[in-house]
Amino acid sequence: MSTLPSHSGVAAGDDQIAHAITGEPGQLKRTLKLRHLVFIGLAYMAPVAVFDLFGIVSDETDGHVPLAYLVVMVAVLFTAFSYSRMVRFFPIAGSAYTYAKEAINAHLGFLVGWAATLDYILLPMVNAILSGIYMGAIFPDVPFWIWVALTVAICTVLNLVGVKLSANLNMAFVVIQLIVAVVFVVLTVVNISNGANGAEFSVRPFFSEDIQLVSITAGAALLALSFLGFDAVSTLAEEAERPTRDIPRAIFIIVLVAGAFFLSVSYVMQVLFPDVSLLEDVVGASPEIAKYIGGAAFQAVFVGGYMMAVLACGITQQMSAARLLYAMGRDGALPKRLFGKVNPRTGVPVANVLLIALVALTATFVDLDQATAMANFGAFLAFTFVNLSVIFVFFRFLKRRSLGLWLGFVAVPAVGVAINVWLWLSLDPLSKVIGGIWLVAGLLFLVVKTRGFRAPAPDLTGPVNISMYE
């Protein structure tokens, strides 16, 4: 295994890392600052996504959506800690795929990447489906496929222009979403204060005597996808100006800000409507609540803000999926001629962006339940192996064995593994079946490509910043 030069300081080493990894023409370009990374992550999660699943999870948890969010936030913080560790060692594109490949085993890394690819590739399709559903509610005479095609086309064009333009647009989209969400919360609080629907502030959304642990876990497993933005940011390590400093910071900022937002919004919604079964449409609970608290005019504004989320999500999801495929193609895990190239002028992996767009267009043939079921599987598997990768880094690469390193590189990631496996087991059976089929397909592909694992694995680069722990 070859190893890149070690550096004694994170900030001082960033420029050298940038030159070592992306100093040649045709490579990804380092243009993203901390603020870009944070807004990309928040846009990927879409702050207004809290409204999408509220009705479903409230029904599942019997009125305890905030508690389910709290559970999954704790789980994500453990995994975020491991991501922040790994990005310091491997400030390169690929995220969970790269970490498992470099820290554990190249073949296993491919399978982790393959599983994560299902999640990344399908999320733009889920986003396109949501676009068709929401716009179809306002313009029922316009065919569903037109909204899907328009959403995919806009996101594809913006991604082909370049990552920095997309990042700046996402900053504007996130601000718009937050304004709409803040107005929603204010109107909800006013309604609660006025005793609408017999509501009053209480701790019941977080605790009650009739809590069912299985239901809370199942709800948390569904809500985990709301936090995928921090994972998406790690795929942009080769386009961050100071990856080893800014990406760990961005990861924790994103999780904490998003978590506080999700908890606050879901709490006031749950207080106002503790029993969503009283609504006409549980799945479409949020637009109905918007009309209840602010009338038809605010409902129109609410849907408009949601469409900003659709565009923001579509841009960032397509961006991240394309870069995951690029990392796998560059290392030879996928055909390099197709997946491992970037445009020398824009620094964009064009073929990958177009491929993701084609997959997203299949939204015209797939319903939302099928799409989300297929996308659920890879997230927890990837999170589990990111935590495992930290443990393997400790035993394979670090020479020191202090108590602090044992806690940070073994104990905390081990808890993260346990939590993610627990949540993975709470997924619905259909997600496991479809995800299992996808994983088996990846294994068969790997066996054929490596001639039964006899062919050498792609070259590994090794961790960059070992010296800071020695």
Explain how this protein is built.
The chain has one domain: Amino acid/polyamine transporter I (Up-down Bundle). It is 70% helix and 0% strand. 52% of the residues are buried. InterPro entries: AA-permease/SLC12A_dom, APC_superfamily.
Mean pLDDT: 81
Beta-strand segment tally: 0
Overall number of structural domains = 1
CATH architecture: Up-down Bundle
Structural class: mainly alpha
N-to-C SSE string, H for helix and E for strand: HHHHHHHHHHHHHHHHH
CATH topology: Amino acid/polyamine transporter I
Oligomerization category of the chains in this entry: single chain
CATH class: Mainly Alpha
Helix share bin: over 70%
Measured by DSSP, the beta-strand proportion falls in under 5%
* Morphology: globular
Radius of gyration: 22 Å
The major β-sheet equals: none
Which stretches of 5+ consecutive residues score pLDDT under 50?
1-25
- Span from first to last CA? 19 Å
Tally of separate helices = 17
CATH homology group: Amino acid/polyamine transporter I
GO biological process, one term: transmembrane transport
InterPro entries: AA-permease/SLC12A_dom, APC_superfamily
Membrane topology: Multi-pass membrane protein
Protein name: APC family permease
